[in-house]
């Protein structure tokens, strides 16, 4: 009788353990890896300070996203060249992508298969507009096993900061903008007056590397605040379909640049990420009128309980005077309460579409 009771107790214990394992929350998707940047165009210049013709900057990418997706290869940037006399563009700018796309076997993460490429070019006009619709950038995935192959293009426009020489646009200082965010149940506001912006209009992020990651339409503005060395998202949305239903994510938050006090000698700095998805609006009552004002630093406080991409991208730069001529970047980001689709979309946006603005001086 005791033996039966013991066996029953063991069975109950095992069932409880298996139930706990089954109900354990999935690990948060991450973005980890490195980017090595060689700014040759900042080294090889003429007497007017313009890059020499055909000299390019190389971004060597090695990122693992959501544990199982690998993006590995190079992004090549050909900068514009303008005549020092007439301001005429003598070399048009463009981006060329050559990235291998691979997946890890979920049952054995050491097993990796290359399944396709992110490949093609994007022209950039003299005003800093990236025209993906006129380019050839796409994700091309091979048929493999039971998975069918497909090809998906990038499209739309991204109007970035124009070059200093020959530009017809000015820094966007005219209209002050108020940025808001939720910090521990309170709405914190920040007024931005000295900024540049990158406007994305109908930008289409290609689907892939797997069909579970759909093509996504992006609209909104990325603002760079010179006073606080931070990027903000303004009226920013990403729209895609999951199981036949349209999903729209509203992005907010910031990416703040923080330099080491000894950066001129050690070359160290880092981006601190707190990118929010569908941040809730806080309704404040009468008590908020009598609350003490928050210090500006509260705006940059991180809250990992909200759906957000947080973490750091640490830079080890090689300097020549005030100019960065090479960077070694270590990426370590976590998607708190984000889906894999959201993390993959943010990876495409921040590390591939915004690769030049995020690494410009």
Short description:
Helices cover 13% and strands 50% of the residues. The protein is mainly β.
Features of the shown structure:
two-stranded antiparallel ribbon, mainly beta, globular, 361 residues
Would you count the extended β strands for me? 20
**For the terminal residues, how far apart are their CA atoms?**
78 Å
Could you tell me the radius of gyration in angstroms?
23 Å
Low-confidence region ranges: 1-23, 165-173, 286-293
Helix and strand succession? HEEEEEEEEEEEEEEEEEHEHEEHH
Helix content: 10-25%
Percentage beta strand: over 45%
Number of helices: 5
Report the average pLDDT across residues: 87
User: How many domains comprise the coordinates?
Assistant: 1
Quickly give the structural class: mainly beta
Outline: globular
Strand order of the largest sheet: 8-11-14-15-16-17-18-19-20-1-2-3-6-7-9-10
- Largest beta-sheet details: 16 strands, antiparallel
Describe what you observe in this structure.
The protein is mostly beta strands and 361 residues long. It has one domain (2-358). It contains 5 helices and 20 strands. The chain has helices spanning 2-23, 263-266, 287-290, 340-353, 355-358; strands at residues 30-39, 57-65, 69-78, 81-82, 89-91, 93-105, 108-124, 129-131, 138-141, 150-153, 155-159, 177-183, 186-192, 195-205, 216-225, 230-242, 245-259, 268-277, 308-320, 323-336. The strands form 3 sheets. The protein has a 16-stranded antiparallel beta sheet with strand order 8-11-14-15-16-17-18-19-20-1-2-3-6-7-9-10. A hairpin with a 6-residue loop joins strand 4 and strand 5 (89-91). The radius of gyration is 23 Å and the shape is globular. The termini are far apart. The relative contact order is 0.14. Residues 1-23, 165-173 and 286-293 have low confidence and may be disordered.
């Amino acid at each position: 009788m005791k033996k039966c009771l013991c066996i029953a107790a063991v069975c109950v214990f095992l069932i409880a353990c298996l139930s706990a394992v089954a109900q354990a929350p999935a690990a948060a998707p991450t973005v980890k890896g490195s980017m090595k940047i060689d700014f040759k165009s900042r080294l090889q210049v003429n007497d007017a300070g313009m890059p020499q013709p055909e000299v390019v900057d190389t971004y060597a990418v090695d990122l693992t996203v959501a544990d199982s997706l690998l993006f590995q290869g190079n992004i090549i940037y050909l900068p514009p060249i303008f005549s020092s006399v007439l301001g005429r563009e003598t070399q048009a700018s463009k981006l060329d992508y050559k990235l291998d796309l691979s997946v890890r076997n979920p049952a054995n993460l050491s097993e990796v298969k290359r399944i396709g490429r992110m490949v093609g070019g994007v022209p950039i006009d003299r005003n800093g507009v990236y025209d993906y619709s006129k380019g050839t950038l796409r994700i091309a995935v091979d048929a493999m096993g039971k998975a069918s192959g497909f090809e998906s293009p990038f499209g739309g426009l991204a109007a970035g900061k124009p070059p200093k020489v020959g530009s017809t646009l000015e820094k966007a200082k005219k209209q002050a903008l108020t940025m808001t965010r939720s910090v521990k149940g309170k709405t914190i506001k920040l007024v931005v007056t000295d900024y540049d912006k990158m406007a994305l209009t109908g930008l289409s992020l290609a689907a892939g590397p797997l069909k579970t990651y759909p093509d996504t339409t992006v609209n909104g503005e990325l603002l760079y605040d010179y006073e606080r060395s931070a990027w903000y998202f303004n009226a920013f949305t990403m729209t895609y379909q999951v199981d036949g239903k349209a999903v729209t994510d509203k992005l907010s938050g910031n990416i703040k640049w923080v330099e080491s006090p000894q950066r001129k000698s050690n070359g160290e700095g880092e981006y601190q990420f707190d990118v929010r998805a569908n941040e809730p609006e806080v309704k404040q009552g009468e008590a908020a009128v009598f609350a003490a004002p928050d210090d500006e630093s509260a705006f940059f406080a991180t809250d990992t309980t909200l759906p957000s991409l947080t973490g750091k991208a640490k830079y080890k730069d090689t300097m020549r005077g005030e100019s960065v001529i090479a960077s070694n970047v270590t990426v370590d980001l976590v998607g708190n309460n984000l889906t894999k689709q959201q993390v993959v979309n943010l990876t495409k946006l921040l590390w591939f579409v915004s690769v030049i603005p995020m690494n410009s001086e």
